[in-house]
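The instructor's notes for this session suggest beginning with a concrete chain rather than abstract definitions. Hand out the sequence below and ask the class to guess, before any prediction is shown, which regions might be ordered.
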Amino acid sequence: MSPSSQMWLGLLAGLSQLRQVSSTPFIIPFLEERQAFTVPAFVSTYAPLVWLYSGEKYFPSDIRAQLDHTKPEVNFEVIPGYPTPLTLDNLDSLNADNGTQVYLTSVDDITTNPTWLNGVKPDSTGKTDGAVSVAIIVNDRGNGEVDAFYMYFYAFNWGGTFLGEDVDDHVGDWEHNMIRFVNGVPSQVWYSQHSFGEAFTYDCLEKQGVRPFTYSANGSHANYAITGEHDHTIPNFNLPGTGILTDYTDQGTLWDPLLNAYFYSFNADANTYKAYDSSYPTAWLKFVGKWGDEQYPNSDKRQHEVIPGISATAHYAGGPTGPEDKQLNRTEVCPTASGYVCDVRTSLTS
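After discussion, reveal the predicted structure:
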């Protein structure tokens, strides 16, 4: 018998003995398998803490519960034969036909302010009790670079006022931070804001311990790095002070997204997700439709354009896309957007 054959027989004998003395099946702890089932410690250690606005009316909401209050529609018509009940385990089945045109449409007239739109105000510990409002998605890009996405869900978005009238209200709202880690050390942080956002170096941010603060704007939930007034009239320019379109942030209610969240890993090559805990639903992450109503036509009595003929000034806008559409495999910390430069700020500005 060759030395190599003796070595492999010895290894197999050793494994057999380990199986006999162990009360649980022996699993060879390959590094790749361990990583697939263990959330990297730094993803939680440096997770953002979110300050919700002191006058906030629309708090973080349970992701699953959104399906209890909506029905899938395309062109304002209910999809025939859709799965009932619709759940986070079968939501991706709606992708089959006209998937990107599917809108999860409220079964209630939202002008009556149904209570489910209000979400759940975090308790004294920062937890949205009974509401899983966050999906944390980890993309290991290799060579020590890991992107962690902290996806925040709200049942309703109040868009603010334009020329004294409400605009951009819509059912469903997804916002997020992304932290880029290099060898387990946070390097840069992305703050989503309306159609784009801002990026900062981790070192310059306000923090509690090592956890950076995110300030969620009143109603719109756009994420900012500082408190105050943020004029976002011009896309990708957040000017100090009030303007035609203004977000407001302050230290109102502290929300800890870690306390009630789903955790996933993302394989960019295969475009697949894997839950770190088998109890977490996964299929919903592949849903490519919208998480709210389609923008109401002007013929709908609920709709009104502040400037007639300018759809962007409509009172009610269409619902947003979910995590699948948030560019989870980015070259830069910013998502790719035509005409926008990824300016990673090294000091806090509005």
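Then share the key points. The first helix runs from residue 3 to 21. Residues 1-36 have pLDDT under 50 and may be disordered.
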